[in-house]
Amino acid sequence: MIIHANDSGGRWRRLQAHFRQMFPAPFGLHTRHMFSAYLRDTLLVLGGVMIVALSIDLTANLFDVIAANSDGSLLGKTLYLGWYILLRCVYFATELLPMATFLGVFWAEVTHTRSKNRLTVLIAGRSPSQCLTPIILFAFLVASVQLALNIYLRPVAVMTQIEANLGLYGKIFDRRPSTKRKWIRTSDALINARIEFTSPPMLHDLQVYRVGDDRRLHEVLEAKSAIPIAGEKKWLLRDGKRWVIAPRPASNIIGPPQPQEISILDEEKFAREEIALDVDPLWLRYFGVDVAYLPESVFRALGTVKFYPDSEYRTWAQARYALAVGAGGMAILAGGLSLLLLINGILLRSLVVIWTVGFAAHLLTKPLLQLGFHGWIDPVLAAWFTPILILLGPLVVYQAMKMRTPAIRSQRALDYGPVFHQRENPAPR
Fold it and tell me: pTM score, two decimals?
């Protein structure tokens, strides 16, 4: 078979074009320009929203924060307030970064279209995959920052507030000895007690209601205090009483046992007694604190502990990674929709569609996580449904964009062809 030189050159050019579409220049001029625009606009949006959030937070907690500072000097109070603002900035950045990313990328794409830079890039023949390169790189950056905030930075910030008893979370998750009794659920009992959040923790004025396999009350214990025994799944109770309950034959009445169906045997007093209690001291020390705010070392240690209910823990074990993927996906979603809908110009319909999709993706995340925290849906579904949905959207956009790009280029050539022809063949003077 004879291969002509022209055929060989054409094949080589097609191979080069195919290779360039598959492996675009990751750090070219267009990529650096758009990446810096995404970063700049996202930081501007995030900073603006955080200023509003901090203003609302300080309105409610300013005087409490100033009063909590033991240093009476103006400089000391100012530094203490600045330290509190820094802690709150970490918290707000974790919550607001996904939506700020979407708005920042969207803003940068609108500016890119209005300045006619998008038209220049398309006429220059840049492929859709090359236009997506800065978006993907920025998405990786956002996902990495969100992951660090979820796992390390926000827990440190919130736990610092809790230990210093600062702000709203310092009051909600107060670690001082509780004055109110709290209910604790285990695998075979319900505990009602006041908790002292020390290391190890202690229980005061506790009541233990043991339930058998038939889900009926079998034993009740009361004690002045209880402390865990190191290395064992037992607790030492002091100054307590025990009542053993023997159920009589049940009646035909549907519902809880009636008083005539319960026989209470003799009361037994004890000064000290060790009992098996399925309550882990580490879990009890952080009892009541949202699992998303636990330090990473504590979170990993609780992975080997059996406690009830555990749906919040299992959901957050998935969500802290899923939320990072979703934050990066918001950048891809905003960029992909802009490449498709803003390619011919800025229309009100296109802006409304992009904004609605991004806002819906942001709103869908929280309700699903709450359903997972309460055990109403599977933790994997609660955490990963929205991020996967966000990532699938740009893939559909990308396929549609590849089909539309040749037609768009042909239309641009028809629109601007006479201009180029006049430049190449100027009219005689």
Answer: 0.82
Task: Evaluate whether 165 touches 154 at the Cβ level (below 8 Å).
Answer: no
Q: Three-state SS for 192?
A: strand
Give the whole-angstrom CA distance, residue 326 versus residue 324: 5
Looking at residue 422, its pLDDT comes to: 43
Give the residue ranges of the chain where pLDDT is below 50. Answer: 1-5, 22, 252-254, 260, 411-429
Output the DSSP codes for 150-191.
Answer: IIIIHHHHHHHHHHHT-HHHHHHT--SPPSS-EEEE-SSEEE
Beta-bridge partners for 221: 208, 242
Rounded to 5, what percent of the chain is helix, strand, coil? 65, 15, 20
| Distances in whole angstroms, Cα of residue 382 to Cα of each of 149, 238, 290, 330 | 20, 43, 17, 18
Helices first, then strands: H and E counts in the chain? 12, 6
Residue 83 and residue 313 in contact, taking contact as beta carbons nearer than 8 Å: no
What element of type H or E holds 241?
Answer: strand 234-247
Q: Which of 61, 60, 59, 78 is nearest to 69 (CA)?
A: 78
